[in-house]
Amino acid sequence: MLTGKTALVTGGGRGIGRAIAEGLSAAGARVIVTGRRQAELDEVAQKLGGVALVADLSSRAGVAALVTALEEQPRVDVLVNNAGIAESAPYDRTTDESWDRQMELNVTVPFLLCRALVPAMVQAGWGRVINVASNAGRMGYAYTSAYCASKHALVGLTRALASELGRSGVTVNAVCPGWVKTDMAAEAASRIAQKTKRSPEEAEKALASMSPQNRLMEANEVAHLVVALAGDAARGIHGQAIPLDGGQVMA
User: Fold this and answer.
1) Alpha carbon 94 to chain centroid, angstroms
2) Does domain 6-178+218-239 have CATH number 3.40.50.720?
């Protein structure tokens, strides 16, 4: 389905990013994974016959270095903006530094990579941008004002770019998972357990109960949606923010 295409997956060394990289590779794409952890990236790249590019996307210099390194690679046809962070605190205890970190990685980095890589897709007449947002980009959660704001902004960026690129052959969409069974969910459950004196298992059940299906999503479910959006058959899906949360967000 994606034979001859090159895909870049940020945060591709573990969790959702790794599952997406594996899914795109299985669909025929040549995959480039990027992130901060060399060993994880090398493992993924070796398994998939792809390329590992270490980059610290928390800084503008790191983004610029990645863009420069990509000049030595084939044109990116599928850009998956997956790297992100989630920090929680009451709004009045959210520091400037935490706000800036989340806005930078969750929305500014995707914008910078789109600005750098999408023009070549437009010139080629084909491309896919898939932003891994969150259902926190479709609704609000208490104690995550910065995270929710950043993911709402990513959904807004998705829609704005889709409006600009409608006639170009490039589609832009966001996938909006609920809680996914990854290290990030485990860390969240651990924080909840510490604050509420519940066990980590009870805290994880509380996260799962937010979904009508009463479960955490799986990383391979997110990967399945991303791979589907990357294919030619999805060319009419454009400017969408698609929930993947077992029915928690239905509008």
Assistant:
1) 23
2) yes
